[in-house]
Amino acid sequence: MKHPVRGKSGQSMVEYIIIVVVVAIAALAIFGVFSDTIRSKLGGAVNELGADQSKVDDALSKSSVDTIKDIDADVGGDS
């Protein structure tokens, strides 16, 4: 009588988790590289939809690094 191989489902679950983690890291890296471009495109789209132009200009005038520093300072983080 053959015994079923144990641990196959655990192995496949770990493989799926590794794939999800790799995809998430790749997505974060892509968003990090293109964050200013994405912000510019979204600002243009918001402007076309009729938002307040001064808020759009204010958001587009700062880089993503400056925005993160501002958020960190607002929350009371150490920078």
Helix percent band: over 70%
Supply Rg. Answer: 22 Å
Range of strand content: under 5%
Count of strand segments: 0
- H/E element sequence: HHHH
The residue-averaged pLDDT reads 77
In the predicted model, the low-confidence regions spanning at least 5 consecutive residues are none
Structural class: mainly alpha
The end-to-end distance, rounded to whole angstroms, is 65 Å
Number of H/I helices: 4
Overall shape: it is elongated
Largest sheet: none
Question: Describe it for me?
Answer:
Helices cover 77% and strands 0% of the residues. It has 79 residues and is mainly α. It is built from four helices and no strands. The protein has a domain of 46 residues.
Features:
elongated; 4 helices; 79 residues; mainly alpha
Summarize the model shown.
With 79 residues, this protein is mainly α. The protein is built from 4 helices and no strands. Helix 2 (35-48) packs antiparallel against helix 3 (53-61).
Give the arrangement of secondary structure elements.
Layout lengths: L7 H26 L1 H14 L4 H9 L2 H12 L4
